[in-house]
Specification:
CATH superfamily: Metalloproteases ("zincins"), catalytic domain
Structural class: mainly alpha
Radius of gyration: 12 Å
Order of helices and strands: EEEHHHH
Shape: globular
CATH class: Alpha Beta
Length: 81
């Protein structure tokens, strides 16, 4: 895992499984951080945004859509370092 400032992403998962998180994420509420980490962990099993990926996300974090919406609403403030 590594930290790196990215312009438009909260996190990413490389094809080799390296997870990168935006350091500004520490300013987000805990549930939002949990969502981003879980989102990237789901990419370890399904490296795309396929139905399988979303089933995994739904199974492990029901209600993730509301959390994502909340996080996206604060993107301008949080992503800025």
């Amino acid at each position: 895992m590594r930290l790196r400032a990215m312009r438009v992403q909260w996190g990413s998962c490389s094809p080799t499984g390296r997870i990168t998180l935006h350091p500004g994420l520490v300013r987000a509420p805990r549930e939002c951080i949990d969502y981003v980490v879980l989102h990237e962990l789901c990419h370890l099993a399904s490296h795309d945004h396929s139905p399988r990926f979303y089933r995994l996300l739904d199974r492990h974090l029901p209600g993730w859509k509301a959390v994502k919406q909340r996080l996206d609403g604060m993107a301008e403030d949080v992503l800025r370092i």
